[in-house]
Fold this sequence. Notes:
It is a single chain. The chain is of the alpha+beta class. The chain is 43% helix and 12% strand. It has helices at 7-17, 21-32, 47-55, 89-104; strands at residues 36-38, 68-72, 78-82.
Amino acid sequence: VLTTENRDVWANTRTRLMNDPLNRESLHRVESALFGVSLPDALAKDSDAVMAECALGNGEHTWFDKSFTMIAFPDGKSGFCAEHTSADAPVQSRMCDDMKAFMAEDDKHDVD
């Protein structure tokens, strides 16, 4: 929810949160992580719902200040929310290409 806020509101909220030792430690852990992992409670009913949830979500389970957040739904469907800037997007694109190539080597996975 915080990272979907107006940047000034988010900055002021972050400053207030940093006054509490537990909040400061929690924010440090999230902000220093290489990427986010999100485990939403709701099921995505189909591929379109998975894509919509991964791209935008409802703002409650994705930390948008990370280059990417892996999202795994309770039924095993998954995806990720990635930074869309010209500097970060090629990294995510390459990661997807590599994952698809890796899965294609194993006949048990459907890569489409």
